[in-house]
Design brief:
single chain, 531 residues, alpha+beta, 4-stranded antiparallel beta sheet, 20 strands, 31% helix
């Protein structure tokens, strides 16, 4: 009986956690599977991001989505304003999603052919960092950092360092890290954490890790050996020199200035850096734990609970101890162990999964802009850039690593779809029926505007005079003003909930358009040797 190779894609988003199964098709060409490929941008990206370092699309392996094999857990993963992550609930939800997808795969295999999980990939909301203790377990929700932070103490750190550093130093830092000093990034959040948190809490943090690295550390047995994080996740912290794929020296110097962080511990607090496949771009070595699947024993030599929970993800050392739950090939074909991959930023996955990447086959390769609106909103373009090369980052945009071959250039809004959630609560549209009715009227209003049918304010249809600036959590792109606030103007006696909801949608759309316009101005960006 033949064995189907399966890839599991896990997406830890800010409003839900999902896992989806893909069938791995190693012998199909692009043309053969043109309309059958499922590249879910929300669940970990494309085949190119999952299997090979530098893909050639004419001969690369393809994935086909298994439409009935998926599971999602809706949840609010980030606390607004503080940016703290509900890390324990999030980790539980990730495990639950994999539990259910494997259960569906087992049920499916009873009626069809056997399967083997050959890889598990991650995409996560970024930025995220979680303080862990010496066993690799999260210390506390208050020892978590995310992109959604806009606390006053963090904004104050940004103001202080923007004043302390001269413009030349700030510009150089921006060009190396691809990010300004802003509350959405890790540096001001780390400074605020160590200056304002209780001493006991700070001392409990042994190292800062990402969501995916914590999961992989747990699954591979935990212990004292820490898991590295990917260049992609590190870059979204705003502390990575994307030219060298190492922690930026000026960032380390600034952290050294914080009296509550012992100088000798700075580098120990930050995780090691590798590509998403575990390969160190500097020496070519690969993280062994990621290549072996789930081991039988933990770091303390006790039995790994995930060994029995997920037998399909076991490493090679488990093939002599399979049971009826462990679906392995019965033929003489030698199959590789399950590969585990570090997380990449959800924005990078969105570009790769929607084929807005630098390796697109069409003539407009590298010129496709991916626009995504979820809890937040963003527009990005993918550009080939090897380590040692650099680009000039345009003011108002960010620049992050995807992997050692590619970067993402673009801009983001902290509040995208979350603006609609906020308006729904403000307008007391909690019932689905009431919300749907207002949305229907908003759509009708849009149709009228599109046809230039502007109605008199005395009539029942909305006039469209209300406007909104959607900075509920401060501004990221293009001005990066963390202290900016939202504004609704043009309200009159005739203003209704339709006007306000429409203005929210229009505000997010117009701010996204501003980012797209800025990207459009720099499409011809040139890369050059920087080192």
């Amino acid at each position: 009986m033949s064995t189907t190779s399966i890839l599991l894609a896990v997406d830890a988003g800010s409003s839900s956690v999902r896992c989806k199964a893909y069938e791995f098709l190693p012998h199909r060409s692009v043309e053969d599977a043109n309309d059958n490929v499922g590249c879910n941008q929300d669940c970990g990206g494309s085949p190119s991001s999952s299997i090979h370092d530098e893909p050639h699309r004419e001969s690369m392996p393809l994935l086909r989505a298994m439409t009935d094999i998926h599971h999602a857990v809706p949840m609010t993963c980030i606390i607004p304003n503080t940016g703290h992550i509900r890390i324990h609930s999030l980790l539980t939800a990730i495990d639950e999603c994999i539990d259910n997808v494997l259960r569906l795969l087992r049920r499916s295999s009873m009626h069809n052919k056997e399967f083997r999980v050959v890889a598990v990939g991650f995409s996560t909301f970024v930025m995220n960092l979680v303080g862990v203790d010496d066993t690799g377990e999260p210390v506390s929700e208050t020892a978590t950092l995310s992109y959604a932070c806009n606390r006053s103490d963090v904004v104050e750190q940004c103001r202080r360092w923007n004043e302390n550093l001269n413009s030349e130093t700030l510009d150089a830092l921006y060009q190396r890290t691809g990010a300004p000093l802003h509350s959405a990034y890790a540096l001001p959040q780390l400074l605020a954490f160590y200056e304002n948190s209780p001493d006991g809490l700070c001392k409990r943090v042994h190292r800062w890790q990402t969501i995916s690295s914590i999961c992989l550390h747990r699954w591979t047995g935990g212990g004292e050996i820490s898991m590295p994080i990917s260049y992609s996740e590190a870059s979204w912290t705003g502390m990575l020199d994307f030219q060298t794929c190492s922690w930026d020296e000026k960032v380390i110097q600034i952290l050294h200035s914080c009296e509550n962080i012992p100088a000798r511990n700075i580098m120990n607090l930050l995780p090691q850096l590798v590509d998403f496949d575990g390969t160190n771009a500097q020496n070519g070595c690969t993280t062994p734990l990621l290549r072996r699947g789930i081991p039988r024993t933990c770091g303390d030599r006790k039995r790994n609970p995930y060994w029995d929970r997920w037998p399909e993800l076991r490493g090679q050392d488990g093939e002599d101890d399979c049971d009826e739950k462990n679906n392995t090939a019965t033929t003489s074909e030698v199959l590789p162990p399950c590969r585990l991959f570090l997380g990449i930023g959800d924005g990078a996955a969105a570009n790769l999964g929607s084929k807005c990447d630098s390796y697109a086959r069409s003539s407009d390769a590298g010129r496709r802009i991916a626009v995504t609106i979820g809890t937040s909103a963003a527009a990005r373009v993918c550009i080939p850039l090897s380590i040692g090369e650099t680009v000039t980052v345009p003011r108002g945009l960010f620049c992050y690593r995807v992997d050692k071959h590619r970067i993402i250039l673009g801009g983001a809004l902290t509040d995208g779809g979350s603006v609609v959630d906020w308006a729904r609560t403000l307008l007391n549209l909690q019932s689905q029926e009431a919300f749907d009715e207002v949305l229907k009227q908003v759509a009708e209003h849009y149709d009228h505007k599109a046809k230039n049918l502007y109605l008199d304010s005395a009539q029942t249809q909305p006039t469209g005079a209300v406007t909104m600036i959607p900075f509920l959590s401060g501004e990221r792109s293009t001005g990066f003003r963390g202290s900016a606030t939202a504004c609704i103007s043009g309200i009159t006696r005739e203003t209704t909930s339709v006007h306000i909801l429409y203005s929210c949608l229009a505000g997010v759309t117009l701010r996204s358009a501003a980012v797209i316009d800025l990207i459009g101005e720099v499409r011809g960006i040139q890369r050059h040797r920087g080192l």
